[in-house]
Amino acid sequence: MKQIRVMMADDSPEIRSYFSNIISHEEDMELAGTASSGVEAVRMARELRPDIILMDIQMETRVAGISASQQILTEFPGTKIIILTILEDDDLLFQAYCAGVIDYIIKTDSVHQILTSIRNAYHNQMILRPKYAEKIIQELKRVREEQNGLLYGLNILTMLSNSEFEVLKCLYQGMNARQISESRYVSQGTVKTQIHSILKKFDMKSVSDVVRHLKEIRFDHIIETMHPGN
To answer: Which of 23, 109, 175, 229 could cross-link 170 (Cys pair, CB 3.0–4.6 Å)?
Structure first.
């Protein structure tokens, strides 16, 4: 029978000893090694290539385990990582899931729960816990909407003339038509015509709608690198 090679990382010697003892008594498991920090966990993962890693979240930093998990999974995507935690901190566990961990264990869970989690992870029988599945779905939706908004905005910006782009920057900075006219040494009529063209290209009814969209796509970061064509 092939043994499940388990490595664990925790900055508490007592916790390392406790989990090591549990694993060592199972016929289908082998303790591959232990680490006391996220940095050490990454190094040992490279050397030992374990099947499963039990990774404490908070070690040398509050998110050391998450950072280490992300690095390990980038190099060894086949490794299964289970987070160890004292409390169900939703934000930290959500970050861990986003980094690619497969499950989490509360350190006070029963021995049966701990061993079941390890075996399920090894055999790819994990079911994402509902509240985190919902959070991940919502986050993916948010990211997709943000990306779509950015692509839409960038596409419109490339359609603006150089003059319209300069007027748009002024609008973004809160200037009105008169102020733009004075700063660009053109008539207010010309500025109003350019604003009308900008609204038409963005398919929006007001300048405030355009500015709101520009803030969503972080237009201030685009200004320095964006060079629209004529």
So the answer is: 175
Task: Answer with the one of 127, 146, 164 that is the final residue of a domain.
Answer: 127
Q: Are 26 and 120 part of one and the same domain?
A: yes
Residue 78 backbone zone (phi > 0: left; psi -120 to 50: alpha; other: beta): alpha
pLDDT by residue for the chain (230 residues), tens digit each? 789 999 999 999 999 999 999 999 999 999 999 999 999 999 999 999 999 999 999 999 999 999 999 999 999 999 999 999 988 777 788 888 888 888 888 999 999 999 999 999 998 886 666 555 566 656 656 666 666 666 667 778 888 888 998 899 999 989 999 999 999 999 999 999 999 999 998 888 999 988 888 887 778 777 665 544 44
Range of the domain at 122: 4-127
* Helix, strand, coil share of the chain (percent; to 5): 60, 10, 30
The DSSP 8-state label assigned to residue 27 in this structure reads T
Judge whether 136 and 113 are in contact, CB under 8 Å: no
